[in-house]
């Protein structure tokens, strides 16, 4: 019996990462914190309903079948999106209540992680791997 793994075409993941980076930078430049609500809303929809509008729109621009692109693990992307949603929400809330430094902290973290992922190193993947390794070690000890 063959198991199929859910995956997301890499160009869709990259588009979402760029959307996060550009939204955060736009927020910094304009001072309009509501811009963070755009990637936050897309991320929440992706986590809760499996429908990320940014990726859905980007999918219409794919030139090949989705299966012909480098696949990204769906579960890993959900984990990464959860981290992004937490940071975007933290940034939006912090800016909204006047905690500018904390807002910068959250938005720098998410923008940096997304940009580093675009460059080829997945911070969320590293965190998830370390977490799984820790859990496995903990299980072996008991």
Characterization of this structure:
The protein is mainly α. It has one domain (about 5-140). It is built from six helices and two strands, in the order βαααβααα. The chain has helices at about 10-30, 35-50, 55-60, 75-95, 100-120, 125-140, and strands at about 5-10, 70-75. A two-stranded antiparallel sheet has the order 1-2. Helix 4 (about 75-95) crosses helix 6 (about 125-140). The two termini are about 30 Å apart.
Short description:
The protein has 142 residues and is mainly α. It has one domain (7-141).
Helix-strand makeup class: mainly alpha
Gyration radius, in Å? 16 Å
State the helicity in percent bands.
over 70%
- Count of individual domains: 1
Figure out the total of helices: 6
Number of strands: 2
Oligomer: single chain
In percent, how much strand structure appears in the residues? under 5%
Which labels suit this protein?
single chain; 142 residues; mainly alpha; two-stranded antiparallel sheet; 6 helices; 2 strands; globular
List the helices and strands and how they pair.
Blueprint: E1 7-9, H1 10-30, H2 37-49, H3 53-59, E2 71-73, H4 74-96, H5 100-119, H6 123-141
Antiparallel strand pairs: 1-2
């Amino acid at each position: 019996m063959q198991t199929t793994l859910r995956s997301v075409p890499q160009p869709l993941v990259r588009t979402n990462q760029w959307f996060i980076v550009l939204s955060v930078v736009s927020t910094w430049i304009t001072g309009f914190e509501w811009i963070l609500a755009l990637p936050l809303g897309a991320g929440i929809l992706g986590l809760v309903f499996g429908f990320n509008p940014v990726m859905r729109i980007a999918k219409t621009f794919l030139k090949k079948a989705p299966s012909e692109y480098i696949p990204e693990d769906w579960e890993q992307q959900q984990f990464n999106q959860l981290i992004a949603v937490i940071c975007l929400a933290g940034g939006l809330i912090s800016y909204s209540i006047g905690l500018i430094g904390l807002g910068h902290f959250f938005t720098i973290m998410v923008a940096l992680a997304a940009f580093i992922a675009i460059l080829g190193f997945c911070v969320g993947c590293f965190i998830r791997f370390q977490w799984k390794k820790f859990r496995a070690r903990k299980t072996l000890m008991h």
